[in-house]
Amino acid sequence: MGIIYKAGEDPVIQIANEFTVVQLAYIRTGNGERLVVTSPKLGFETQLDPLQLECLTWQPSATFSRLLETPYGPGSEMRAKPLSTLMRKE
Question: What percent of the chain is modeled with pLDDT above 70?
């Protein structure tokens, strides 16, 4: 796990393993606070409000197993990037 700091921006938490990289950021919208979950390797992003996050805690592990049946996300188009491009120091 690491924290990415960029000038003028809020920090981003990055969690990775041998399969994926996920970044977490916090934002405020006109409708309240959100957790932004990004998969930079695949190019997907979602914003979750507090109730949606709590809903994750209600799920049995089988729910997450079903989500992994399509590990590269919905649809056939995959916008994957090599992990090495994400790890470059700027």
Answer: 80
Q: Which residue has tokens 């590269």?
A: 72
Cα–Cα distance measured from residue 73 to residue 20, given in angstroms and rounded to the nearest whole number: 12
pLDDT digits (tens, 9 = 90+) for 45-85: 999 999 999 999 999 998 888 888 777 766 645 555 665 66
Using an 8 Å Cβ cutoff, are 35 and 15 in contact?
no
Q: Could you tell me whether strands 2-4 and 21-29 are parallel, antiparallel, or unpaired per DSSP bridges?
A: unpaired
C-alpha 4 chain-centroid distance = 14
Q: Rounded CA gap, 56 and 64, in Å?
A: 9
Q: What pTM was estimated for this model as a whole? A: 0.72
Cα(28)–Cα(35) distance, integer angstroms:
9
